[in-house]
Each structure stands twice: as structure tokens, then as C-alpha cells.
Predict the structure.
Amino acid sequence: MLQTRHKLVSSMWQCFRNKAQIRQSSGEVVESAVPYDSLKDKKVETPTSVPKEADVVIIGGGSIGCNTLYHLTKLGINNVVMLEKDQLTAGTTWHTAGLVWSLRPTDVEVEMLKYAVDLMQDLEAETGVNTGWINNGGLFIANNQKRLQEYMRLSTIGRVYGVESFILSPEETKQLYPLMNVSDIYGSLYSPRDGVIDPAGICTALTRAATKAGAKVISKCAVTGINTKIDEFGTKRVTGVDTTVGHIKTNCVVNCGGVWAPSLGAMAGVKVPLVAMHHAYIVTERIPGINNMPNVRDHDASVYLKLQGDALCVGGYEKDPVFWNEVKRDFAFSLFDLDWDVFSAHIEGAVNRVPALVDTGVKSTVCGPESFTADHKPLMGESPEVRGFYLGCGFNSSGMMMGPGCGRELAKWVAHGRPDLDLFSYDIRRFSQKLSGNQQWIKERSHEAYAKKLLHCIPS
């Protein structure tokens, strides 16, 4: 049995390697492309000026920037300007897989994710824009008793916040997902609220609501400098933002620049401890019988299987990721070539869980930059170096699903001086200044956190 499994995995791996160059079914070159429409070809005019002043300037038009903008207007702060050097979503948001899981290891995250799903469902009615929300549910696979106990705890936390979930036996899991191999599992956790969101759709909806309330979104406008001053008490404060088309006077800047956040922070003398890595998934060709299946995460195999129409997106977290050491300023709506030797770490787990993948071709590959931190938690809140300089970055490839909740809390941080929820584990001040400026420590710890992302979560 084991020998047969290894033979299937080897066959799948060789098939994928071949299809990295030639698609099996048609002989076409495998594309490097996202499996949905983006804002890449949307015509946006280059601005000739910017507002002279603003209460808040948000830098970066991705998931976190758009969510923060939206929630600031909901708090009555409408004199807000969001600056994007290219177009909305152009950096890292545009190529996201868009997975939304409702259950996470902490109560704070479960509460924020519940809000995220609620917002994704309600936003279309508010704005008239289709957010692309697909509520197909999610399955967490337990390969051992320890993992099943972890899922039972997650289910209990979820019930406190009204998030329905069910512990399924292997047989019940098979009934829900007929194409799945359940011979080696102890059970699964099924969350009906889970789903997928379209990055272009939700960012368009968020910005439309915000601009209707009076906020301004300015694309094709790069930031060239952040002005600060030392006040009479010796405190360094933000005073303005320089752009390619003018200066904006402001006392508050929110850095939502993703992998470009460190360079933006440097303009104000703020350390932003994150690193950029290649993060990838592949899109398969059509799989008969896969329609309407829930998304799957197999934590012990470190792989996910996201439904993409009549196909799957397959990705995960490998032990030896590729770092993007020289982040290019003009990198927009762009992807890297997939390193198949690195990605091979996900093949065995994917094939084992859905054996039909053995006979399935590769339609496209998606390998783009994502920002990661030393403890796999986001960087949020006001920086310790400069008053009025806030961070909303380093979301470790979870910015799409964490965007609504974190955007809401970051907006409250800016407006009221603190978030409503206990976000100490997200607060930039959790890092010592000696560590946040140590590039070797940041890289090595971020690598470790990335590789260990899906280990068991044991409550203290």
C-alpha cells in the first residue's frame, strides 16, 4: 500500500515537472497567471495634484489599506487620502488565493473573522459592487488524535462567537467530500461559514463606499518622502507626505505598503521588521466531481486545496521558502516564475488527500511576493519612534481574510488611540527596538515562523 502511494506521488511529481513547460492536454505553455479577473487593465489617469492637507494619509491600496480607509469613514473621519503608487491591489493583494477561514487559534482572531465574513456578505448590498464572496465552507483535516483535539478546541471557541462548526468522522468527511482520501485521518472540522473572496471585488467595494463618504483614493501617485519634526517636548511627529505630484500636510500616516512597508518606514526613521518571500499556488485543470466542494486545509501536510470553479488551487507553506531580497519599487501586477523544486514539498500531501490530482494537469502557476514577520503576526499600531506613524502590514499571507477585522481595529487605533480588541500580539511595540532593526534576526525568525506556521496550537 505504501509502495503504491509513493509510486503515485512520484508519478504526480514528474507530471507536474513536465507540465511546468508544456500543458498535458493542449501542448500550450503553462501560464503564470491568477485564476480570476484583476484590476490590471483598468484605465487610471495619472493625477496632476493631491489635496493640500488631510486628517489621515494611508499609503498602499491593498486589502489592509482599503479596509482601513473604509472603517475610518465609518467612524466619521472623512478627510482621508489613500495613495497607491500603481493601482488598487497591484502589489500583493491581486494574486492572493482569497481563502477565508472562520476558525483560528485565538478568540480575538475568531471574533475578527466573524466580522469579516459578515462584512463580505453585507458589502454588496451597501455598495452595489459584487465582492466575489463564495460561501462554499471549509474542512480542516485531522491526521492524528492530537490534531483532532485541537480542532475540538477551535470548535468550542467558535461557538462562543456564534460560529457554527462540526467535528466529522472519516466516513462523514467522505460523504461531504467524495473525492477525498480519508483512510489515514481521524476526522475533520467542518466550518460552513468559510469561503473565498475576490480581491478586486472587495477592494473596489470598500473604496467605493469610502469615496462616497468623502475619502479620496489617488492611484498612480508614489510617495517620495515622509516629513517629521521634533516638537517642544522632544517627540518626533509626522507633519506631511511628499508625493510625485505634490505635498500633503498631515499629522497621521498609515503604512499599509506590504512588502514595500520597510522602505516607507525608512522615510520617517521607522523600523518595519518584515521580510518578503515568494509564496505560491498552482491552478489545476478541470477535475470531474470537484464542483461545490469545500476548501480544505491539511495542517500536518502543510497544504491547502481551494475550490476554483471546476478545478483546485493547491498551495501551502514549505520549509525552505525563497526570499525576495531586493524588493523592486516598480513591481506591480507581476509574478515570479515558480520554483518547482521548492513547490514540490506540497505534492505528496495534495495527492494523498485528493488522489484525483494524479490524472490532473496544471493550468497555471501563481507565485508572488508576500510579507512575513518574525512571529507570524501582523505589524499594527503606532510606531514607537514617530508619533502619528501607524503600521498595517506584515500579514503573513492572511491579509485578505484578516483585512476587515484588522482594518476596523486599526481605524479605531487611529481615531481613539487604541483598538477595542486586545491586539498586543499584533502591536509593533511587542518587538524590542534592538531586534526590530536586526535584519539577520528578522530573516531567520521569519523563516522559522513560516516553516512552522501549521504546527499544533496548544493553549497556555
About this structure: The CA atoms of residues 159 and 165 lie 8 Å apart. Confidence is low (pLDDT under 50) at residues 4-8, 20-27. The longest strand covers residues 362-373.
